[in-house]
Amino acid sequence: MPIHLTRQSRREFLSTLGAGLATFSARPAFGTDLDDDLVYLLNDTHIGEKHPPNSPVPSHFREVIDELIALKRQPAAVLINGDLALKDGQPGDYRHFARLVKPLRTAKLNVHLTLGNHDNREVFYGILKEEKPDKPIVESRHISIVQTRHANFFLLDSLIKTMVTQGEIGPGQMKWLTAALDAHAEKPAIIVTHHNPRLGGDPIHFPGGLIDSQPLWDMLEKRRHVKAYVHGHIHHWSRAEHRGIHIINTPATSYVGNKAVSTTGWTTARMRPDGIALTVHTNEKAHRWNGDRADLKWRS
After folding, report:
1. Which domain holds residue 189?
2. The CATH number of the domain where 94 resides is what?
3. Is 17 a residue whose pLDDT tops 50?
């Protein structure tokens, strides 16, 4: 459920929209250079109210925040793709999260959030009241488009219910997404949602993914400008491809899923007209994922 943390308030932003398409263009803060081709991908921060300030989870998140603040040129967008809260979206979790991201807001970075299965939509809105839209485009869903120079990012809401592992796009959101993709066919489209697609075949068979993956993919495949699908949820780093669409599974930013194989970090995406170059940055510098690159070319 994308929430935009920018200079422009959420209510002001929504009042500027037309034709039912919530579109946000990445712009730099006044006096700040923007790197039009750079996007930061984060997910699964799992911030808990009772985490001590210097414990691993907030420290991992703070490391990438410090990096973002220190950049001489701001990225076009920072996407934090779900599971912001530790377990079940308690008020204190979001208060802690808000304190951690405050430097990004102060620096006027273009930050966009989605919610995952460990989040609670109403509790989140209760803490960040100004982020709640007066008139959601799709009832009980919070969706939008982030435009960058070489691609449009379609941020979706796959949250069914807090602590329900599976996700769902749903008929209303599917109808909106179909219309939005058709209205924005001038650039490559990248789908961003917390849950992984569940389409069969390792590693995209994870049972906790989208229960309506198949109809979603049938619709996406027909629209040739749809090039990639970015998700978190699995706390791992991998790439796959299904019917020509790249599936990008980004590592968790704060919470280690399986200590034997995974770690925490973030992913930078360097956009170009014909593809995307991904680089993983891990908090554990000696981990095999650190510096791993994937240069993906879009389908024709």
Report:
1. 3-297
2. 3.60.21.10
3. no
Distance CA 299, CA 229 (A): 13
Residue type, 30: F
Query: β-pairing, 111-114 with 3-5?
Result: antiparallel
Predicted model pTM: 0.92
Integer Cα distance of 275 and 226 in angstroms: 12
Beta-bridge mates of residue 18: 21
pLDDT beyond 50 at 29: no
Please tell me the distance from the alpha carbon of residue 164 to that of residue 253, in angstroms, as a whole number: 21
Number of structural domains found in the chain: 1
